Amino acid sequence: MGQEEIKKVLQQYKSGQIEIKEVLEKLKHFPYDDLGFAKIDNQRQLRKGFPEVIFCQGKTLEQITKIAQRIKETEGKMIATRAAPDVYQEIKKIIPEVTYFKEARIVAVAVEEKKQVSSKFILLVSGGTADIPVAEEAAVIAELMGNRVERLYDVGVAGLHRLLINSKKLLAANVLIVVAGMEGALPSVVGGLVDKPVIAVPTSVGYGVSFKGLSALLTMLNSCAPGLAVVNIDNGFGAGYMASLINHLNEVKE
Amino acid sequence: MGQEEIKKVLQQYKSGQIEIKEVLEKLKHFPYDDLGFAKIDNQRQLRKGFPEVIFCQGKTLEQITKIAQRIKETEGKMIATRAAPDVYQEIKKIIPEVTYFKEARIVAVAVEEKKQVSSKFILLVSGGTADIPVAEEAAVIAELMGNRVERLYDVGVAGLHRLLINSKKLLAANVLIVVAGMEGALPSVVGGLVDKPVIAVPTSVGYGVSFKGLSALLTMLNSCAPGLAVVNIDNGFGAGYMASLINHLNEVKE
Amino acid sequence: MGQEEIKKVLQQYKSGQIEIKEVLEKLKHFPYDDLGFAKIDNQRQLRKGFPEVIFCQGKTLEQITKIAQRIKETEGKMIATRAAPDVYQEIKKIIPEVTYFKEARIVAVAVEEKKQVSSKFILLVSGGTADIPVAEEAAVIAELMGNRVERLYDVGVAGLHRLLINSKKLLAANVLIVVAGMEGALPSVVGGLVDKPVIAVPTSVGYGVSFKGLSALLTMLNSCAPGLAVVNIDNGFGAGYMASLINHLNEVKE
Amino acid sequence: MGQEEIKKVLQQYKSGQIEIKEVLEKLKHFPYDDLGFAKIDNQRQLRKGFPEVIFCQGKTLEQITKIAQRIKETEGKMIATRAAPDVYQEIKKIIPEVTYFKEARIVAVAVEEKKQVSSKFILLVSGGTADIPVAEEAAVIAELMGNRVERLYDVGVAGLHRLLINSKKLLAANVLIVVAGMEGALPSVVGGLVDKPVIAVPTSVGYGVSFKGLSALLTMLNSCAPGLAVVNIDNGFGAGYMASLINHLNEVKE
Amino acid sequence: MGQEEIKKVLQQYKSGQIEIKEVLEKLKHFPYDDLGFAKIDNQRQLRKGFPEVIFCQGKTLEQITKIAQRIKETEGKMIATRAAPDVYQEIKKIIPEVTYFKEARIVAVAVEEKKQVSSKFILLVSGGTADIPVAEEAAVIAELMGNRVERLYDVGVAGLHRLLINSKKLLAANVLIVVAGMEGALPSVVGGLVDKPVIAVPTSVGYGVSFKGLSALLTMLNSCAPGLAVVNIDNGFGAGYMASLINHLNEVKE
Amino acid sequence: MGQEEIKKVLQQYKSGQIEIKEVLEKLKHFPYDDLGFAKIDNQRQLRKGFPEVIFCQGKTLEQITKIAQRIKETEGKMIATRAAPDVYQEIKKIIPEVTYFKEARIVAVAVEEKKQVSSKFILLVSGGTADIPVAEEAAVIAELMGNRVERLYDVGVAGLHRLLINSKKLLAANVLIVVAGMEGALPSVVGGLVDKPVIAVPTSVGYGVSFKGLSALLTMLNSCAPGLAVVNIDNGFGAGYMASLINHLNEVKE
Amino acid sequence: MGQEEIKKVLQQYKSGQIEIKEVLEKLKHFPYDDLGFAKIDNQRQLRKGFPEVIFCQGKTLEQITKIAQRIKETEGKMIATRAAPDVYQEIKKIIPEVTYFKEARIVAVAVEEKKQVSSKFILLVSGGTADIPVAEEAAVIAELMGNRVERLYDVGVAGLHRLLINSKKLLAANVLIVVAGMEGALPSVVGGLVDKPVIAVPTSVGYGVSFKGLSALLTMLNSCAPGLAVVNIDNGFGAGYMASLINHLNEVKE
Amino acid sequence: MGQEEIKKVLQQYKSGQIEIKEVLEKLKHFPYDDLGFAKIDNQRQLRKGFPEVIFCQGKTLEQITKIAQRIKETEGKMIATRAAPDVYQEIKKIIPEVTYFKEARIVAVAVEEKKQVSSKFILLVSGGTADIPVAEEAAVIAELMGNRVERLYDVGVAGLHRLLINSKKLLAANVLIVVAGMEGALPSVVGGLVDKPVIAVPTSVGYGVSFKGLSALLTMLNSCAPGLAVVNIDNGFGAGYMASLINHLNEVKE
Predict the structure, then answer these.
(1) Could you tell me which of G27, G26, G54, G50 has the C-alpha nearest to residue G40?
(2) CA C157, CA C181: separation in Å to the nearest integer?
(3) What are F's interface residues with G at a Cβ cutoff of 8 A?
(4) Which residues of H touch G136 (CB under 8 A)?
(5) CB nearest to E162's CB, from C39, C67, C204
(6) Hey, are the CB atoms on G249 and E246 less than 8 Å from each other?
(7) Could you tell me how far CA G15 lies from the centroid of its own chain?
(8) Is the distance from CB of H222 to CB of A209 less than 8 angstroms?
(9) Min CA distance, D102 vs chain E (Å)?
């Protein structure tokens, strides 16, 4: 429940539109909703500007659907990540209006996205074809959070001209998310070219000493290019969220 | 050499103030200045909005002073990080106007800092007293890049009330840098409370399985709190630079 | 065979209730019972106050059921952990009165639990929904060992208010078991709030650099909060056992 | 400042012994004392039953003495760990009554230790001679927190009879702290013999694949003996504190 | 082909029993037999006193059977380790007289084992039931190499009396192989009790920080007990072979 | 598209054979071909002398076939590595003339291989039978790149004579690729014998502390034998490519 | 105190040579001698056939000399390893007859070494010059334990002929100790050539990914050559002790 | 002693210029020279085309000078790497004609370098100023082995234009050695641009998760750019040697 909803409830009460009983009813799941196996953080939207997102991995289908239903009821919107197709099928049964972003493995209730018409866009850059699922997770999250997103995929350093030819796009972006597996050198190279914040996302793509993304992660943390910060391996969600916070910054309050 | 300087040179030439010879003289170290052991990136300011910063560790005193002198000459300003007191003494001999930020281990030529009078400040949060040198490196860099910086030190999770009492300050910040060693849990807790981007900096403070900051780094990368990205262990410079890029975002262009 | 049983046997012999032959018969599997592939530690109850618990993982179904049967015969009670449903089915065939604690993956003969009516309870705190199986293993073990157990699940640091609202419960507990995966920061935060011993249990929940619980483990070992000790990743059994020892301390002897 | 001190202040005020001004004066550093580089947690004693302990490693001499002085003033007692001889010399200058426990590297103001006359003692067991500094850190902390402590040093598993001959002492202890480096097998063996909680402390003693205590730590975490929990490498302080919490449990409140 | 076989061939030739053609025929696969995908080391028995043993893991069924057949033909005996049941079934088709040691996962042609009647036996000691497959691999290899082998299973350190009660057997052994998973402390304890060489074998039994046997391996390498050496994780074959070499030492040549 | 093709197009245009429209048509996928999920590097052949090779692992069947088709169309030849049998089946449907090198897991369009008749050959040496798939990947790549390749398999250091007997072949080779798993000692030994460049390839063959090839990799990097460089674990492709570059060196330009 | 000494004391008593008081006096430090900081294992010689050896590293000079003196008094002989020159100087003051083996860093009281005149010798093989200190530690220990020792130094695999030329010596040895740093391949090669037990000792010699001996250790544990076991990095003492146990085996009892 | 020297000796003998006694005298240190602590590989030049190079690290000054003297006498030339200034001073005393390459830490007897006049040069590329000592080690070794070497230093990926501007030089090189610390991305980028073999050298330059060069090493091994192989961290010598072998390839024999 966000600030706006709470304000509205209190104003309705003040103006006599609703009774104290209704106020209590509406607030009863505030600040959290206790399902026993989960305490849904209903204060999250108030605190973070965005409701809790369900991380499906490690949860049972039953737990996921119950949490999804409750968040949908309370917040009006709902996002679930790392959602395999069967998760989508189950949620669809109780929330028929959900959309499934297959490559991104995201199930979401299509909130009216106040997509920015502005020129401030987040650019998703990825090293290879196999990195796309992680890149898409970031892209879809950023779009669901109301950002304009552009994509520039498969421009890894082994064929640098593919990146350099697109330097105009790189320089035009407001925030960049750079996704790469294997040696993970792409964020360093991009970071050296632009003057905007770069979020680097290592992926578990690779073999041998890629160590499931660890090598790419180390590369990114060691980057000599300033203006770059890193998230966990395969954490497209975290990168999209962070980029969205940055992209919206200084916007609302002006 | 930044965009402004290059523009000015070209305009002076066009208006007849300077001869072609002088233009060439001024541009002769563009795009880089080759000292043999170093190629100073004179295009950096143009590309990244800020001139190259000297990372002193691993360079000889002689190399550092030569690079410092050349950058000072070309760019008008100069910043050197990881600078021990003897580095400061050496640079002072050739650039008498330098300032030494002792705790931050930074030597800098005091550029006229167009410090924002605005309410948009970067908040430096640190877990313990021993983390302060890293926190100060971040703080001083951000200040030298023209940001207002506030500090909130020694508010680690073992005494959580020290942090919670300051929640007003936390919520008022535009960007947060959270510095912690040992278990490195502070960024997660801060990240759960605010709706602004958090840059997490692990430090090498600790013993035993802190593994010189590795444990803190892993904690931060694994953080469940969204809106958080991480830099290398003890990389105060990188955090300050990233926070500055974010804080200035959407500002110049409006 | 515990101290009480041995005493009783010896008293019965002294009072003429049983013959020397019967005494020998009863003691014949003391101090251990050799099944060839296993030597059941019949002295365990005498030494540790609790009979040997069967760790099912890595044992064949045939080995488990033989050991279970023998322990049941000798000790009157029997506990098996890491027991998949098929283990339960097999044991049930030979010991029909067993109970299966599904989430905790524990099969046990329902010993008359002298549950404390006292106010001294062990509090189980968990970070996320996916940590519940490990938390339940700890909770059920503690209950089977005669402790009152309370549960407080899904109160991770990303939504700290869920924990702080429950601070009364936290402060009322006699011993706390805090279970968390991912960054594993919860035990540090809880440890900073209470003045009772905290047993921290890292779980293998997570992805990327969680390294199957290693990151959470390191966080807990590095904790700045005093009064905290750690067990192996996913070792709910060990945490429950340790907490029970602590909770019963100073109790019997007074 | 502990509960008792706060109560006394309030009662003195109520009974007219002191003025409101004096109350405020006494409470002005509550809940924390801000020295800029450190926020002394004055609420710690209230919350944890024991004032903040200074971890000297990583702090400057100046920082340590300032913090020590302030804690001494506020709490009446003061403990500093990981204190090299020069730390002791500096603190002595401003707090002449401090004692230096050389082997334990602890500087402390000799609080009137209400040492238990009771039979409930904490037993310190160590594997080798080189482990003694860590064992002593634990022992001294436990003594300073009001516990009776017994020591059993150099009883490593390579000469098991040294341990077994002392089994009476092992069985008499209320809580055990077992300190070992190299292979770190001692806690497992002790844990198999007693029915009381065991706190295992790995030390950095060893060479080659001891990896500065990591091997001993892993051994202890993997222990098959139930009733055992582990602290960080060389963390004698944490073990002593935890053991004290456990030993005092169920005592005060009855 | 061993020394004896070669001698016999040469003597038969000298005494006219066989023609030069037959000698060449018999020696034609000497020193190795080239199957393309494998070069069977026919000199191995000559050099090492025992023919090449087939390590099945990583080889196809077709490769294994071809190698087995050729070794059987050349050497008269054949041993294959890490052999799953289907490997046994395939080899049986072409070498019907093979035996399958199921727990040890070994397929062997039953060579007339000149089992020592002597009192010099190798003692196999194992920590837990789940370690038995590795222990059996060692035991069977040692038996196939002509040693008397005794077994003492499930005597881990959590119930030390099970080991100490058998100290007579421990002291009577000529060489000891000690197999343990989890914390791997058993070899240290055994090594402290006996005055004979101990071969320590870590197993991959365990969970969490056992790291698939790494923790047990480190424990064994760090052992303070002298007279102990270590082989790779789960390498029962290597331990059995080494113990056999040691047990036979000084025997043949006297 | 290689230098020759581009030259030809331009010459045809100059000589009037083709119109400007046709030139543009032929060059329209230059410098890369954007399939959305992949940007095929059409400049690769020009830059590296060999077209882009498809690394199948981590790509969907649909992605692989689309990329394969486009490369085939543009370059006339096509190579795909890490190709499981189903990949081969799919590609065959659209490019019927492909060949499948089963052991090497390579699918390729049989380019007219201008196999060198020269005496300069690349020698593939492997330690064990299980290393052959990686060795074959290297061998086939080198052959497809126009090199004469010789093979010497299963000559590991445990039976050194198998290697030494072949020293003539070793000394005759122009470049050597040495493939080994487990302890990975073979490249060191070979490197000590020859005076030609050795490319060392660790494989993931092994168990226990082989750590899926890490141990072999470290051995090779630590090698005391000069004239040796290393590629990633199981990277047969990389080794074959590197060896080919070296073998062709100084050849074209003379 | 060994079996012989105890027997003698008891016989002297029986025969009336000494009084009961003297018996007690002689046995009073049996089974261990408690110095507070150390419990000298006086039963060690009885149990292991050799008195306790002092590992100096990590002990203070005062502790070392006290332990040395006591062992000398009780056992008649004394050995201290990892002894820096100052340790030697200190011990010499109280035990003037000690010898210092400088390269081996061993201080020992020259026991009358009943050096075997027999042909059964232990062969010390080392890879490089820098490995000699570790090799000498092993050699001197073996000599002090009454073995004939031969040395073959600097025969690493980069110049294999240096080893092969000495194959006669290799084959003549009864037990082999092979010491190597860097890639640690030497034990594998030696193990493939001989039919006697090989003790492999990794050393911390190397740089980069030698990881202070870890790489060499892994190589040795992964060795394909059977009949090889490994000790800790730089553990010359352990190797010498193990080799001596093996070399003396089957000797005393025949 | 190289092939030429041996041939000459034999021819002189055949032609009667020298007596058999002199031949033996000249060959007496063949195939190796036994100094006890070292066996100088006099066959090395014959086998590898270049005499043994002394790796000074870990050897005493006395050992180094003795080895240097003997190699100088036998081979006429001498190279010692990782030589600190005091090593140079000592060698100079006995071989006055040595040269010291200070940055490269190499001491060498100035052999008449038959420097190629040819256009085939080795290009040394380095990422940063601090990488120069390693780059120089490679460069000097290559020069001493008779190659033309060009240098391109401080062209790291954070300022990519510094590299791209020099692409003509990159494309002209016959073999490339690319040296980089921190994230180690430079070899990937260079490898993507050229069609010649690239030797990648990670350096220990960096901090935090650079892990003393491990991160850079992993990056290089994971490189997507084909035609690249890697040597140990800081192994400038190995890279220079390998590059020289490659550069000279196909040259002598044509």
Answers:
(1) G54
(2) 11
(3) 127-128, 156-160, 182-185, 188-189, 191-193, 206, 208-211, 214-216, 218-226
(4) none
(5) C39
(6) yes
(7) 38
(8) yes
(9) 27
CA nearest neighbour of H224 among F52, F210, D172: F52
Report the residue of chain H nearest A158, measured CA to CA: H192
| Helix-, strand-, coil-residue percentages of chain G, each rounded to 5 | 45, 15, 40
Instruction: Give the span between the Cα atoms of G125 and G129, in whole angstroms.
Output: 11
0.80 surpassed by pTM: yes
Count CB atoms within 10 A of the CB of residue D122. Answer: 28
Res D27 pLDDT > 80: no
The length of chain A, given as a count of residues: 254
Averaged pLDDT of chain D: 89
Cα G230 to Cα E200: distance, rounded to the nearest angstrom: 10
Q: What is the pLDDT of residues F238-252, one digit of tens each?
A: 999 999 999 998 764
In whole angstroms, what is the distance from residue A36 CA to residue D253 CA?
31
| Helix segments in chain C, DSSP class H | 3-14, 20-27, 44-48, 61-75, 85-94, 132-144, 161-164, 167-172, 186-193, 214-221, 236-248
Where chain B has pLDDT below 50, the residues are 117, 252-254
Cα F39 off chain centre by: 21
The mean of the pLDDT values for chain G is 89
| A127 φ, ψ (degrees, to nearest 5) | -75, -45
Q: What is the mean pLDDT of residues G120-135?
A: 95
Nearest to E205 by CA among E188, E189, E180, E181: E181
Q: Is the ipTM of this complex over 0.85?
A: yes
Between E and F, how many CB-CB pairs are < 8 A?
53
Q: For tokens 């090889």, what's the residue?
A: G228
Q: Which residues pair with E177 in a beta bridge?
A: E124, E199
Structure tokens at D184: 């770190």
Q: Which chain D positions have a beta carbon within 8 Å of E160's beta carbon?
A: 189, 192-193
> Is the predicted pLDDT of residue H254 greater than 70, yes or no?
no
Chain A residues whose CB is inside 8 A of the B48 CB are 194-195, 226-227
For chain D, list the contacting chains (3+ Cβ pairs, <8 Å).
B, C, E, G
In chain H, residues with a C-beta closer than 8 Å to the C-beta of B59 are 129-130
**Joined tokens for residue G118:** 């027999």
Neighbour-count burial for F78-110, b at 16+ CB within 10 Å, e otherwise: bbbbbbeeebbebbeeebeebebbeebbbbbbe
Q: How confident is the model at residue A253 (pLDDT cuts 50, 70, 90)?
A: very low
Which residues of C have a CB under 8 Å from any CB of A? Answer: 128-130, 132, 153-155, 158-159, 161-162, 165, 205, 207-209
With beta carbons less than 8 A apart as the criterion, state whether E29 and E74 touch: yes
Contact residues for H183 (Cβ-Cβ < 8 A; gap 6+) = A185, A188, A218, A219, A220, A222, A223, A224, H157, H210, H215, H216, H219
Alpha-carbon separation of residue H133 from B55, E147, H82, H105 (angstroms): 17, 58, 10, 8
Classify strands D106-109 and D98-101 as parallel, antiparallel or unpaired: antiparallel
Whether there are 3 or more C-beta pairs closer than 8 Å between F and B is no
Question: E229: Cβ–Cβ under 8 A, 6 or more apart, which residues?
Answer: E197, E198, E199, E200, E242, G199, G229, G230, G231, G238, G239, G242
Q: Are residues E157 and D188, on separate chains, in Cβ contact within 8 Å?
A: yes
* Spatial CA neighbour of D222 closest among C103, C138, E212, C63: E212
**A38, HSE (Cβ side, Cα atoms, 13 Å):** 23
Which residue from B37, B38, B57 is facing H207, i.e. has the nearest CB? B57
Decide if F221 contacts F214 (C-beta within 8 A): no
CB atoms within 10 A of CB F223: 31
Q: Which residues of H touch F174 (CB under 8 A)?
A: 249-250
Q: How many CB atoms lie under 10 A from the CB of residue B250?
A: 18
